[in-house]
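worker-3 :: picked Alpha/beta hydrolase
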Amino acid sequence: MVSIKGVRRRRLRLGAVSTIAIGLLATAAATPAFAADKPAKPTVVLEHGAFADASSWNDVIKELRRDGYPVVAAANPLRGPANDAAALRSVLDHVEGPKILVGHSYGGSVISAAGANDPQVKALVYVAAFLPAPGETALELTNKYPGSTLPDALDPVPFTLPGGATGTDLYIKPGTFHHQFAADVPAGTAALMAATQRPIAQSALEEKAEAAAWQDKPSWAVIATQDLNIPVDAQRYMAKRARAHVTEVRASHSVAVSHPKTVADVIEKAARATR
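worker-3 :: tokens ->
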């Protein structure tokens, strides 16, 4: 039989334990965890280029998220550097904190414009991409060196806007897409990419750049040495001019699809260097 005094002592002990537990919980809540003291990782903002869409970053996103980076893959209208940079800036304005901008192909022209004069943009990563200086066009840079076979692979499609303005959208012909754009990507994947490709306005490739964020921000470049869209020598020229940290990969223009880990590693190097 348990005495009344024993019950009371047990209740007192339980009450003391509860008080201690509550005190510990309160202390834990008031004291931030060690991880919380670490600076937050910057958000990686990915901008796709012509003849692609945001899904071309899928495997890169998986790598970055696995390492704890917040990621946004923006939709690129592909209408012209000024227009597309304005669209990207609306995304950047919505993302709080420091950011790393990553552009593939024509997306490099867009991040160069969108990242200018933005103190929250800490670094730029160009993936088989254009790094135009003010006054230059993507077409001009493509033709600066031999090696691009893109013109013969293009399928021009005229369009008329509701207001009467006309123009030409450029696609890559489905039958040549695998060889031209993604030679080192499995044929089935390349076929899906061809079917879902986004066209670029021809005028976008002829529009002069107005700003170049790489002139005053640190830059990294992934150069695809087997690229049939942007000649490798053009990529090297632009990266050297920008004093970019260069990684060369034996890859097609779709290097982010065929070598996502390599691309993600370069992005993370840029992020770590600017923290």
